[in-house]
Amino acid sequence: MKQESYELFAAGSVEQIVKQIGDELEKRNESPFWKEKVAPFSKAILSVLIPLRDNGILFDPQGDKQERLTPELFFEWSDFVSLKMLLFTITASNEVGVLQRTKLSEEDCAKYQEIDLEKLASYLGKYSVNLENEAFDFPIANYNLHQGVSNVIKSLL
């Protein structure tokens, strides 16, 4: 993993990170099919992770506090099941104004500020994820396509 990637994930904006990923796609001459899928995915996940990072309440899919946003943490969240869980965790947190469903301290959870879920919800909705009921599953074909997108990004960073 490139050192620049760690620095960018630790302090960069959504736009800066997505630009780096896009630049790497161009350098590697990836298929247009992947190019059109990678940017929306990256924007969707980062639209939630960056605000959590900036408020000092970043956590991993197991609910444990994370001090830095790293490419590895980004990849942990890139799993479809984890993304779905993130959407419902942030939805619950937005409703009460306190971070929910994590192992962070009460003090950290109280730092929570509402996060706009439009990009993440739109992305997941395109892959037939039920945005109303967390218990409903999604089509395996959509899961496999999403994993392909995630794997392309992983190869770039």
How are the SSEs ordered, and which strands pair?
Elements (H helix, E strand, L loop, with lengths): L2 H9 L2 H14 L4 H23 L16 H7 L2 H17 L9 H4 L8 H9 L13 H17 L1
Helix pairs in contact: 2-3, 3-7, 3-8
Q: Care to give the gist of this entry?
A:
This protein has helices at 3-11, 14-27, 32-54, 71-77, 80-96, 106-109, 118-126, 140-156. It has 157 residues and is mostly helical.
Count of strand segments: 0
Percent range of helical residues: 55-70%
Series of H and E elements: HHHHHHHH
- Proportion of strand residues: under 5%
Low-pLDDT residue intervals, each spanning 5 or more residues? none
The separation of the N and C termini measures 6 Å
Overall description:
By secondary structure, this protein is an all-alpha fold. Helix 2 packs antiparallel against helix 3, helix 3 runs antiparallel to helix 7 and helix 3 packs across helix 8. It has one domain.
What are the main properties of this structure?
157 residues; mainly alpha; 8 helices; 64% helix
